[in-house]
TrEMBL record:
This is Glutathione S-transferase family protein. It comes from the Bacteria. One of its GO terms (molecular function) is transferase activity. SUPFAM superfamilies: GST C-terminal domain-like, Thioredoxin-like. It holds the Pfam family GST_C_7. Residues 8-83 form the GST N-terminal domain. The keyword NADP does not apply. Signal peptide: none annotated. Keywords: Transferase. InterPro entries: Glutathione-S-Trfase_C_sf, Glutathione_S-Trfase_N, GST_UstS-like_C, Thioredoxin-like_sf.
Amino acid sequence: MTIQLYELVGSDSARPFSPHCWKVVMALAHKGLAWESRYVPFTEIPKIEDGSGIVPVIRDGDATVSDSFAIALHLERTRPDGPSLFGGPGGEAMARFVEAWCQTQIHAIIGKAAIMDVHDALAPDDQAFFRNSREARFGMPLEETRERGLSELGKLNARLEPVRAMLRHQPFIGGASPLFSDYILFGAFQWARIIMREPLLGHDDPVLDWFETCLDLHGGIGRAVPAAA
């Protein structure tokens, strides 16, 4: 049975932008698995069959699994014959670190800087939900959150320096070939690429070279959605 993947979209279902959903898209492609995407806006997420209230969610036969990392573990354990997403327990532990680092250091900036771009990409009902929920989360209007995020974009350069140093020795976070750790950081920059007009990386940045390489992986699936115009 083909895996069903629930992905977040805005008013244009051809432009899924969730960083967490992109992690799973890349993981499925890495494993060489077939899947069908079911696109859902913010206000439809609570109606997804597993009741978790988050995306991504997959239905894999009788199993439903939510959360990108849990989905990656599920794919790794149920399809052991396919290419590994972790390369063993050490790679799984490394991916846990990359996930925590990315959430606290990278998403924390992009999420604020891109907040109005996300809002503007949504249908009206979802815009109202998004504004109410995010203004409650950040304690300020979306417009002010965006300005604070844009003022912090310069911090990304320093926060990415460990990745640049690593890429001097190997082409991927996973080493000679990509692992789920790569897809975690890829998801963050794919989110920004699809939703934001402001470039986050300089043209001579090794992280940009790595990201461009990731866009071409698995038949160029990352490039299937164009960048924000």
